[in-house]
């Protein structure tokens, strides 16, 4: 079963604009991770944010985490055509069970 | 350093048959996990192995099984295939177990059941 939902399900923006994707989850977590998947390929790890962190940056990526609202957002600044992909959040539970539970994903299309 | 390698990349099977998928983790990685991805159910955890022992298992029927060998390579098997087993099967490896480890995914094995 899915841990949560991602919003929006699909997003199309012009190259150079910023893209924001949101993720909501249901249970307590140890950390939340974001992954990118190009069509029909494997997933690439982007960034991990721990439950005691509120914001994290990596290059053009900024992730926020609000554990009180059980939500996270991924911001990609200055988007490029190569950012076109599906983006998934994944949570790791806090029960000593390190399996990842993935969200439903956001399909991002960057229009050149 | 070679990434996670999955074989075969594409295969077509008939209902009722069985299939074995293989995964070679990144050299030195001892944890291997498997996920199933379908348009309807999304990404779902199948199982995780560490040092040849299954540590976690997802909510899948007993037709889905796996194992890990002493060299950390892993296989998963699906018996009595059903149409609904058509999916992308992803293998991932990580250096160790425990919270917060980065896991690295392979390109996946596309299974079509007809």
What does the model show?
The complex is a heterodimer of chains A (112) and B (114). The model of chain A has no long low-confidence stretch (mean pLDDT 91). Chain A has strands at residues 5-7, 10-14, 19-24, 29-37, 43-50, 55-58, 61-66, 71-76, 85-93, 100-102, 106-111. In chain A, 0% of the residues lie in helices and 58% in strands. Chain A has 112 residues and is mainly β. In chain A, strands 2, 4, 5, 9, 10 and 11 form a 6-stranded mixed β-sheet that branches. A 5-stranded antiparallel β-sheet of chain A has the order 1-3-8-7-6, with no helix packed on it. The N and C termini of chain A lie far apart (36 Å). Chain B is mainly beta. Helix content of chain B is 0%, strand content 53%. Chain B has no helices and 11 strands. In chain B, the strands form 2 sheets. In chain B, strands 2, 4, 5, 6, 9, 10 and 11 form a 7-stranded mixed β-sheet that branches. In chain B, strand 7 (64-68) and strand 8 (74-78) form a beta hairpin. The mean pLDDT of chain B is 94. At the A-B interface, strand 4, strand 5, strand 9 and strand 10 of A face strand 5, strand 9 and strand 10 of B.
Estimate the mean pLDDT confidence of chain A.
91
Gyration radius from CA atoms of chain A, angstroms: 13 Å
| Secondary-structure content class of chain A | mainly beta
Tell me, what's the shape of chain A? globular
Percentage beta strand of chain B: over 45%
| Large-scale geometry of chain B | globular
Order of helices and strands of chain A: EEEEEEEEEEE
Distance linking N and C termini of chain A: 36 Å
């Amino acid at each position: 079963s899915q841990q949560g939902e991602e919003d929006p399900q699909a997003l199309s923006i012009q190259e150079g604009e910023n893209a924001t994707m949101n993720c909501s989850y249901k249970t307590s977590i140890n950390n939340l991770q974001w992954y990118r998947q190009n069509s029909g390929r494997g997933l690439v790890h982007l960034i991990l944010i721990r439950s005691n962190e509120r914001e994290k940056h990596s290059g053009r990526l900024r992730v926020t985490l609000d554990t009180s609202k059980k939500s996270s957002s991924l911001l990609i600044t200055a988007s490029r055509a190569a950012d076109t992909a599906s983006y998934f959040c994944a949570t790791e539970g806090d029960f000593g069970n390190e399996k990842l539970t993935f969200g439903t994903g956001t399909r991002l299309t960057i229009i050149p | 350093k070679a990434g996670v390698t999955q074989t075969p990349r594409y295969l077509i099977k008939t209902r009722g048959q069985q299939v074995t998928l293989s995964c070679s983790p990144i050299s030195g990685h001892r944890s291997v996990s498997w996920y199933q991805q379908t348009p309807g159910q999304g990404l779902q955890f199948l199982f995780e192995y560490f040092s040849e022992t299954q540590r976690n298992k997802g909510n899948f029927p007993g037709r889905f099984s796996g194992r890990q060998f002493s060299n950390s390579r892993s296989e998963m098997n699906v018996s009595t295939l059903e149409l609904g087993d058509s999916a992308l099967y992803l293998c991932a490896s990580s250096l160790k177990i425990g919270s917060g480890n980065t896991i690295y995914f392979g390109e996946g094995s596309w299974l079509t059941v007809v």
